[in-house]
Amino acid sequence: MRVAVVIPALNEEQALPGVLADLNRLRPGRVVVVDNGSTDETPQVARDAGAIVVTEPRRGYGSACLAGLAFLSDDPPDVVVILDADGSDDVDDLPLLLRPILKGEADMVLGERVSLADRGALLPNQRFGNVLATRLILRWTGWTYRDMGPFRALRWDAMQSLHMTDTAYGWNVEMQMKAVQTGLRIEEVPVRYRTRGGGRSKISGTVKGTIKAGIGILRACWKYKA
Questions:
Q1: Run of H or E including 186
Q2: Domains observed in the chain
Q3: Hey, which bits of 50-178 come out as E strands?
Q4: pTM, whole model, 2 decimals?
Protein backbone atom coordinates (compact mmCIF):
# COMPACT_ATOMS: atom_id res chain seq x y z
CA MET A 1 0.00 0.00 0.00
CA ARG A 2 1.50 3.31 -1.10
CA VAL A 3 1.66 6.11 1.48
CA ALA A 4 2.33 9.81 0.94
CA VAL A 5 2.89 12.45 3.63
CA VAL A 6 1.78 16.08 3.32
CA ILE A 7 3.41 18.64 5.63
CA PRO A 8 2.12 22.24 5.57
CA ALA A 9 5.00 24.52 6.54
CA LEU A 10 5.40 28.21 7.25
CA ASN A 11 8.80 29.43 8.49
CA GLU A 12 9.84 26.11 10.01
CA GLU A 13 13.51 25.97 8.97
CA GLN A 14 14.57 25.08 12.53
CA ALA A 15 12.19 22.21 13.28
CA LEU A 16 11.56 20.79 9.81
CA PRO A 17 14.95 19.05 9.33
CA GLY A 18 14.31 16.89 12.41
CA VAL A 19 10.82 15.97 11.21
CA LEU A 20 12.10 14.98 7.79
CA ALA A 21 15.02 13.04 9.23
CA ASP A 22 12.57 10.97 11.29
CA LEU A 23 10.40 10.38 8.23
CA ASN A 24 13.39 9.39 6.13
CA ARG A 25 14.23 6.80 8.77
CA LEU A 26 10.72 5.31 8.53
CA ARG A 27 10.60 5.57 4.72
CA PRO A 28 6.83 6.02 4.43
CA GLY A 29 6.86 6.98 0.74
CA ARG A 30 6.63 10.38 -0.91
CA VAL A 31 6.99 13.33 1.46
CA VAL A 32 5.49 16.60 0.22
CA VAL A 33 6.30 19.81 2.07
CA VAL A 34 3.93 22.61 1.13
CA ASP A 35 5.65 25.94 1.62
CA ASN A 36 2.92 28.37 2.61
CA GLY A 37 4.79 31.61 1.94
CA SER A 38 7.84 31.18 4.17
CA THR A 39 10.32 34.02 4.47
CA ASP A 40 13.09 31.80 5.84
CA GLU A 41 14.89 28.79 4.34
CA THR A 42 12.05 26.30 4.83
CA PRO A 43 11.83 25.32 1.12
CA GLN A 44 15.57 24.77 0.84
CA VAL A 45 15.92 22.68 3.99
CA ALA A 46 13.02 20.55 2.75
CA ARG A 47 14.73 19.96 -0.59
CA ASP A 48 18.04 19.24 1.13
CA ALA A 49 16.30 16.50 3.12
CA GLY A 50 14.91 14.91 -0.04
CA ALA A 51 11.31 16.12 0.26
CA ILE A 52 9.19 17.31 -2.65
CA VAL A 53 8.42 21.01 -2.26
CA VAL A 54 5.11 22.47 -3.42
CA THR A 55 4.60 26.23 -3.23
CA GLU A 56 1.27 27.65 -2.07
CA PRO A 57 1.56 31.42 -1.52
CA ARG A 58 -2.07 31.79 -0.40
CA ARG A 59 -1.80 31.72 3.37
CA GLY A 60 -3.90 29.30 5.34
CA TYR A 61 -3.52 25.80 6.76
CA GLY A 62 -6.31 24.50 4.57
CA SER A 63 -4.81 26.15 1.49
CA ALA A 64 -1.51 24.35 2.11
CA CYS A 65 -3.22 20.98 2.64
CA LEU A 66 -5.30 21.40 -0.51
CA ALA A 67 -2.20 22.26 -2.52
CA GLY A 68 -0.44 19.12 -1.29
CA LEU A 69 -3.43 16.96 -2.17
CA ALA A 70 -3.71 18.57 -5.61
CA PHE A 71 -0.08 17.73 -6.29
CA LEU A 72 -0.62 14.09 -5.29
CA SER A 73 -3.75 13.75 -7.41
CA ASP A 74 -1.74 13.17 -10.60
CA ASP A 75 -0.36 9.95 -9.09
CA PRO A 76 -2.46 9.33 -5.98
CA PRO A 77 -1.25 7.14 -3.12
CA ASP A 78 -3.43 4.64 -1.33
CA VAL A 79 -3.11 6.51 1.95
CA VAL A 80 -2.32 10.14 2.69
CA VAL A 81 -0.90 11.34 6.01
CA ILE A 82 -0.96 14.93 7.23
CA LEU A 83 1.28 16.17 10.02
CA ASP A 84 2.75 19.42 11.27
CA ALA A 85 6.20 20.74 10.44
CA ASP A 86 7.04 22.04 13.92
CA GLY A 87 8.23 18.78 15.47
CA SER A 88 5.36 18.47 17.94
CA ASP A 89 3.97 15.35 16.26
CA ASP A 90 6.07 12.27 17.02
CA VAL A 91 6.72 10.69 13.64
CA ASP A 92 7.51 7.36 15.32
CA ASP A 93 3.76 7.06 15.97
CA LEU A 94 3.02 6.94 12.24
CA PRO A 95 2.67 3.11 12.21
CA LEU A 96 -0.05 3.44 14.87
CA LEU A 97 -2.11 5.62 12.53
CA LEU A 98 -1.52 3.43 9.51
CA ARG A 99 -2.24 0.08 11.14
CA PRO A 100 -6.08 0.27 11.25
CA ILE A 101 -6.14 1.40 7.62
CA LEU A 102 -3.72 -1.27 6.46
CA LYS A 103 -5.83 -3.89 8.27
CA GLY A 104 -8.96 -2.66 6.53
CA GLU A 105 -10.60 -1.55 9.78
CA ALA A 106 -10.71 2.24 9.26
CA ASP A 107 -10.89 4.87 6.54
CA MET A 108 -9.62 7.73 8.70
CA VAL A 109 -7.37 7.52 11.75
CA LEU A 110 -6.74 10.56 13.94
CA GLY A 111 -3.89 11.02 16.37
CA GLU A 112 -5.36 11.83 19.78
CA ARG A 113 -2.87 13.99 21.69
CA VAL A 114 -4.66 14.62 24.98
CA SER A 115 -3.81 11.30 26.65
CA LEU A 116 -0.06 11.26 25.98
CA ALA A 117 0.95 14.91 25.47
CA ASP A 118 4.09 16.08 27.24
CA ARG A 119 3.48 18.49 30.07
CA GLY A 120 3.07 21.97 28.60
CA ALA A 121 2.89 20.76 25.00
CA LEU A 122 -0.84 21.47 24.76
CA LEU A 123 -1.44 25.05 25.83
CA PRO A 124 -4.58 25.98 27.78
CA ASN A 125 -6.08 27.72 24.73
CA GLN A 126 -5.49 24.57 22.65
CA ARG A 127 -7.22 22.41 25.25
CA PHE A 128 -10.15 24.83 25.38
CA GLY A 129 -10.39 24.85 21.59
CA ASN A 130 -10.41 21.06 21.57
CA VAL A 131 -13.24 20.90 24.08
CA LEU A 132 -15.27 23.55 22.27
CA ALA A 133 -14.86 22.00 18.82
CA THR A 134 -15.45 18.41 19.88
CA ARG A 135 -18.59 19.33 21.83
CA LEU A 136 -20.00 21.27 18.90
CA ILE A 137 -19.26 18.37 16.56
CA LEU A 138 -20.96 16.01 19.00
CA ARG A 139 -24.01 18.27 19.08
CA TRP A 140 -24.35 18.43 15.31
CA THR A 141 -23.18 14.98 14.25
CA GLY A 142 -23.66 12.73 17.27
CA TRP A 143 -20.02 11.60 17.09
CA THR A 144 -17.67 11.93 20.04
CA TYR A 145 -14.13 12.95 19.14
CA ARG A 146 -11.46 13.30 21.80
CA ASP A 147 -9.15 15.65 19.90
CA MET A 148 -8.68 17.89 16.87
CA GLY A 149 -5.02 17.01 16.41
CA PRO A 150 -3.24 17.61 13.08
CA PHE A 151 -1.60 14.16 12.82
CA ARG A 152 -3.99 12.04 10.74
CA ALA A 153 -4.11 9.39 8.04
CA LEU A 154 -6.84 8.69 5.47
CA ARG A 155 -7.40 6.35 2.60
CA TRP A 156 -7.06 8.40 -0.57
CA ASP A 157 -10.55 7.55 -1.79
CA ALA A 158 -11.94 8.52 1.62
CA MET A 159 -10.19 11.87 1.48
CA GLN A 160 -11.56 12.51 -1.99
CA SER A 161 -15.09 11.68 -0.84
CA LEU A 162 -14.98 14.56 1.66
CA HIS A 163 -14.62 17.23 -1.05
CA MET A 164 -12.60 19.44 1.28
CA THR A 165 -12.81 23.20 0.70
CA ASP A 166 -11.76 25.05 3.86
CA THR A 167 -8.64 27.12 3.31
CA ALA A 168 -7.94 28.21 6.87
CA TYR A 169 -8.44 27.18 10.50
CA GLY A 170 -11.61 25.19 9.85
CA TRP A 171 -9.85 22.44 7.88
CA ASN A 172 -9.78 19.84 10.68
CA VAL A 173 -13.34 20.65 11.75
CA GLU A 174 -14.59 20.27 8.17
CA MET A 175 -12.81 16.95 7.79
CA GLN A 176 -14.04 15.49 11.06
CA MET A 177 -17.63 16.58 10.55
CA LYS A 178 -17.79 15.41 6.95
CA ALA A 179 -16.19 12.09 7.88
CA VAL A 180 -19.16 11.38 10.13
CA GLN A 181 -21.69 12.68 7.63
CA THR A 182 -20.33 10.54 4.79
CA GLY A 183 -20.13 7.39 6.90
CA LEU A 184 -16.37 6.91 7.02
CA ARG A 185 -15.00 4.37 9.47
CA ILE A 186 -13.22 6.55 12.03
CA GLU A 187 -10.68 5.67 14.69
CA GLU A 188 -8.67 7.75 17.13
CA VAL A 189 -5.41 6.42 18.53
CA PRO A 190 -3.38 8.03 21.33
CA VAL A 191 -0.16 9.59 20.06
CA ARG A 192 2.63 11.45 21.75
CA TYR A 193 2.73 15.23 21.47
CA ARG A 194 5.80 17.29 22.25
CA THR A 195 6.60 20.93 22.87
CA ARG A 196 7.07 22.39 19.43
CA GLY A 197 10.54 23.10 18.07
CA GLY A 198 11.72 26.29 16.41
CA GLY A 199 9.99 29.02 18.37
CA ARG A 200 6.42 30.06 19.07
CA SER A 201 3.40 28.69 17.23
CA LYS A 202 1.85 31.05 14.69
CA ILE A 203 -1.61 30.05 15.92
CA SER A 204 -1.71 28.91 19.53
CA GLY A 205 1.36 30.92 20.55
CA THR A 206 -0.18 34.34 19.93
CA VAL A 207 -3.33 36.06 21.12
CA LYS A 208 -4.20 37.11 17.57
CA GLY A 209 -3.66 33.62 16.22
CA THR A 210 -5.72 32.06 18.99
CA ILE A 211 -8.64 34.41 18.39
CA LYS A 212 -8.57 33.87 14.63
CA ALA A 213 -8.38 30.10 15.08
CA GLY A 214 -11.27 30.16 17.54
CA ILE A 215 -13.46 32.17 15.17
CA GLY A 216 -12.50 29.84 12.32
CA ILE A 217 -13.47 26.76 14.34
CA LEU A 218 -16.85 28.25 15.28
CA ARG A 219 -17.59 29.24 11.70
CA ALA A 220 -16.59 25.82 10.40
CA CYS A 221 -18.75 24.00 12.93
CA TRP A 222 -21.76 26.05 11.84
CA LYS A 223 -20.96 25.88 8.11
CA TYR A 224 -20.49 22.13 7.90
CA LYS A 225 -23.24 20.98 10.23
CA ALA A 226 -25.80 18.71 8.58
A1: strand 186-193
A2: 3-223 (3.90.550.10)
A3: 52-55, 79-82, 108-117, 152-155
A4: 0.91
